[in-house]
Design a protein that fits this description.
The chain has about 270 residues and is α+β, with helices and mostly antiparallel strands. The longest helix has 24 residues, at about 245-270. It is built from eight helices and eight strands. The radius of gyration is 20 Å and the shape is globular.
């Protein structure tokens, strides 16, 4: 393994019963297995894991998962953006803020599309599980695979898991579901992130139409991550149609804002 400094990693600790043979232990083992098999700039990097027994006579053990350190999550970052660029729900988003958020969305979709290409359902997409860290030209790090599962062509997934607010109806009802359930969770998260009312078509109606399709009640009517990514990469969702120097300056300023917020949060946690 390459040399890793303390600033590069963070630890996830799971308490476990030594004799537990149930789903909890299975989920931990599955999380480690999925992390080991994921290699993508927008997925949190796995380093190693190990299990330590508790004190003599105790049934408790701790499982440690060492992963890439990321200074903050999307929820914290979203709060910062709202403080800098104050607006009411459903008002027009200023250009710099729009570029910052659209950059995040593109990277999240790329990360989730990568998982889905490996037949992995995340099953707990929400702002707290999207971490941020500067990595080359990327910021997003998809994390927390405690509920993730590999889709099996020979069996169906029915387990009701995830965070209630972000669950697809087929998950809530205990029906068969696929990676499209992640798309619905992401759609709900993005509506919150952009602070838009999709029932009002007065501003950003193209974005609202995309988000509305992502939260469609029928799984078959939702776009894939690849299709959603194609939508936000094309006019009219992309503002910089003329590729002007002014747009280049706005993109650079957007990057500067993200980097400053990450730097501030890194110092705060030292």
């Amino acid at each position: 393994m390459a040399n890793i400094t303390r600033d590069d990693w963070q630890m996830k600790v799971e308490n476990d019963l030594v004799e537990d043979k149930g789903d909890y232990k299975k989920n931990i083992n599955r999380e480690v297995s999925i992390l080991q098999n994921c290699e993508h700039v927008s997925v949190v990097k796995y380093y190693e894991s190990w299990r330590e027994h508790g004190k003599a006579g105790s049934d408790l053990a701790a499982i440690y998962i060492q992963m890439e350190h990321c200074p903050l999550d999307l929820y914290e970052f979203c709060g910062s953006i709202k403080n800098i660029y104050k607006r009411n729900t459903n008002q027009v988003i200023c250009l710099v803020s729009y570029f910052v958020m659209l950059t995040m969305v593109e990277e999240i979709l790329v990360a989730l599309d990568y998982l889905h290409s490996k037949n992995i359902m995340h099953r707990d997409i929400k702002q707290w599980n999207i971490l941020l860290k500067r990595d080359g030209d990327n910021w997003v790090k998809l994390s927390d695979f405690g509920l993730a599962k590999v889709e099996d062509a020979y069996s169906q997934t029915h387990t009701n898991v995830g965070t209630a607010t972000y669950k697809a109806p087929e998950v809530k009802w205990g029906g068969h579901y696929t990676t499209s359930a992640d798309v619905l969770s992401l759609g709900i998260m993005l509506i919150q992130f952009f602070d838009l009312d999709i029932n009002k078509q007065n501003v950003h109606h193209e974005l609202k139409d995309l988000f509305a399709s992502m939260i469609a009640g029928k799984a078959t009517e939702r776009p894939t991550c690849k299709q959603a990514l194609a939508s936000i990469s094309q006019p009219p969702l992309i503002y910089d149609l003329d590729k002007t120097s002014n747009t280049t300056m706005i993109r650079a300023h957007s990057s500067h804002i993200i980097d400053n917020r990450l730097s501030f949060n890194s110092v705060k946690h030292i």
